[in-house]
Amino acid sequence: MARITADQLQQQRQNFMEQAGRAFDGMLGSDGQNGLVTFAEREERACELGDALTRQLLKEHIVAEESREPGEVVDCPICGRPVACDATEKIELETRRVKTRRGEIDYERAARRCKHCRRIFFPR
Description:
The protein has helices spanning 6-28, 39-63; strands at residues 73-75, 82-84, 93-100, 103-110, 112-113, 120-121. It is of the alpha+beta class. The chain folds into two domains: 1-64; 67-124, no CATH class. The strands form three sheets. A two-stranded antiparallel ribbon has the order 1-2. The radius of gyration is 20 Å and the shape is elongated. The mean pLDDT is 85.
């Protein structure tokens, strides 16, 4: 997969800014308080909204990785032998879940199976 284009990056920025705007509205609302009375309520809401934005940034960064869909041959991390792929466009992506300090994120990663050591691995 080629690196992300400038147009794609701009679209991601626009999407993120819209999410950030919704987070701002979720915190302050039209009256500047949004029904939040105690400091604990305010802090909880701010943390939830900030964590959601952080998870989104992490996910976007992982998805943009060039290695998400590896080339035709990659080395097995277990035995070191090359693992070929007949057609990279036919690689099935599997959903992976990562626990972060701000919660879990799901993303897709191409899996490979080494015929020599019979292990499934996810190229970096």
